[in-house]
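Task: complex structure prediction.
Instruction: return structure tokens for all chains below.
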Amino acid sequence: MSKRLLAALAGEAVWPPPVWLMRQAGRYLPEYRALRAEARDFIDLCTTPRLATAVTLQPVRRFGFDAAILFSDILILPWALGQDLRFAEGEGPLLAPLRDATGLAALDPGRVAAAVAPVLETVARVREAVGEAALIGFAGAPFTVACYMVEGRGGDFATARALAWRDPVLFGELIDLLTAATTTYLLAQAKAGAEALMLFDSWAGLLPAAQFAAYVTAPATRIAAALRAERPDVPLIGFPRLAGMALGTYAAATGVQGLGLDTAVDPLLATGAVPAPVALQGNLDPLALLVGGDALAAGIEAILEVMQGRPHIFNLGHGVLPQTPPEHVADLVQRVRAA
Amino acid sequence: MSKRLLAALAGEAVWPPPVWLMRQAGRYLPEYRALRAEARDFIDLCTTPRLATAVTLQPVRRFGFDAAILFSDILILPWALGQDLRFAEGEGPLLAPLRDATGLAALDPGRVAAAVAPVLETVARVREAVGEAALIGFAGAPFTVACYMVEGRGGDFATARALAWRDPVLFGELIDLLTAATTTYLLAQAKAGAEALMLFDSWAGLLPAAQFAAYVTAPATRIAAALRAERPDVPLIGFPRLAGMALGTYAAATGVQGLGLDTAVDPLLATGAVPAPVALQGNLDPLALLVGGDALAAGIEAILEVMQGRPHIFNLGHGVLPQTPPEHVADLVQRVRAA
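Output:
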């Protein structure tokens, strides 16, 4: 019998739906904070297989989720390509901004394999220990990763988006480089033991239509095609956050097996725009989970009601917030399992 | 002959389309910065008819836009309701946060008329001087205004959105109060001389479907119905920013005469979702205007190509950025007029 998450990604209307949460491993868990203290810094945590494996498995052990998602970060790839990266306490990621052809030329795809070796080792270790849960590997999508690389930090990415308008050739070359590197990286995760893959395009919704097509849909289509050719057994979940009306086009063009819905997507409209067998994953408001109680119950119910009878993976529409009480997460799992 | 903007809002495919820009009056203009220096603070600028009138008219005089939009702020209404508000230099608006029933009870709709009298005086003065341009009045939509009122400042509005989950009765009462006050305020602007009205729901896209229906679509529907009943001669432009797939439902439910499209909306998909006679307004990326040159030309062309033959009002998808060179704005107007 196949794992529940993989069955949903194969187009089965598994019910009650498999459930996991974006950022299910993280600061809201005391056992995470304990292990985090053992690492020098965040990159050290992501690249120390003993720690990253334990952190990945913590929420699966505690809550019985249907999936473990590799504990890592979307910026591990630029770091592996040679871009300076640090995570400053309370400030988020800081990178040495890439603003021109010299910065692009300094990226070295040849060093990625060695740099990500510990991450792949984590994938292998988690796979061995994960039991009935499915192991999801992931990467940031080229556009979102490019945003951080050009801007040098989070925010509204005005510098990165201005560069896309000012120098579309350079920006396109960066996207192309990332598309190739991301494909290689995801295939390596599949080889190491990932049973499904997810592509996070957290900032896709910032783009006007033509740029969305060029920098979000086209790269995802190429990545998905390469994965299908090499590893048709490993399904891909696309997550073009805030894609709005473009969701249907994205799903059809890329041929992803699963589509992540952000909080703002109306599940009913999504089922119309993206028909089965694509599994729709999402999309409870993380704030409903934070608040808990009746809000949580109502939020869950509104989604399950619409998704019943079609392939669905229950999740949030964005990551678990750090202040979320762990008991609310336990309550969520229990409520979804009672569907 | 009716003004070009009003003809488009009446459903005519006016071509070349009327053009104006969100935040067309503001910091990117040296003549704005000069007048801004004459005011004590931002609220003083908004409530001194001599200054607000001049600032409103500056971009119309300089660029020949088809519309003047009242120079004011969406937070003038909470300020008029009695909530403490100040605009701190470089920090944006700061309000005394409204978090409970006591805060709600402290709001006094009875004081609005006197507080906004100078704003209405500005409307009357601008109308007298506006010539062939049309005068647009505006207000913030209840949800977006409530976000600032509860949070006390800009950002991701997590406190406000959590309150909507935690205490939907209180949040609903705040929305109801704002819906009534906004209706009264917009009708007063129409009486003072506004020829069209716009309802800015800048943060509508943060909401899950059920809350979007309750806090965005329903209030806008009530406001639009009241305006149609009292002033059928004054069209309304709705702007539920980042509404994504919900745009079509919003337009149909509210019956707005114009619909603002944010930068992320694919114009082609919008024309399918929102048929004529609704005028679609937007939606050039403000970054394309900032960059100028080929980017600006390409961005404009992509929109005009789709909108030709249907009622359209050329605009940005969000406000003019403060660093925008004024000559790029002149170039934009010239290019749109050459369509």
